[in-house]
Task: structure prediction
Amino acid sequence: MLPSIEGGARAGTPVQNGYILLAEDDELFRETLALILAETGYAVLQAADCDQGWDLFRRYPVLAVITDNAMGHGSASLGAGLRLARRVKRQSPGTPVVMLTALPPAAATTVCDAVLTKPAEVEDLLGALQRLGVGTPAAGLPLPAAPIPTGMSAALSSPDGIPQPPGAPGAR
Result:
C-alpha cells in the first residue's frame, strides 16, 4: 500500500522531481494501476475525482496526468476528466495529459496529449508516457517486458477494469 496523504490521496516517493497524477474513481483500478506504475519506476499521486486531482496538481510537482473521463455518479461525473485536463492545460500547457477511459469524448483528442480507450494494454500506457517524454529513473532503457505482478495483468484489459485471476472468465 502506498502512504496516505491528506484527503485519502496516495503518494509514492517523487522521482525526477515529480509525480504522475492518476485521477480515477474506481478504487481497485486506481490502486492496481498505481502499483503497476510504481513498479515501473514512477511515483504516483492518486485522486478519486477531478476536484481532488486538481488540488493535488496545484500542491505537488506533477510530471504528467492520467485521467479517466467519467468520475463519480450522475450527470456531473460525465466529462469530469476532460474538465481536469482543460484546467491542467490552462495552468501548465507543457504538462502531458493522458486520458484513459472507456468512452473518450471527441474533444479529448484536442485537449489531451494521448487518449487510450479502456480496455487498454499496460504497454500502450507506458509507451504513451515514454513518447510524451515522461521517463522513469531508468529513462532511455527499454521498458520491462513484464512490469505487472502475476494476477494483475488483466487490470487494464478486463472489460470492467477489475483485475481477474488468470483463467477467470473475461481475463486475458
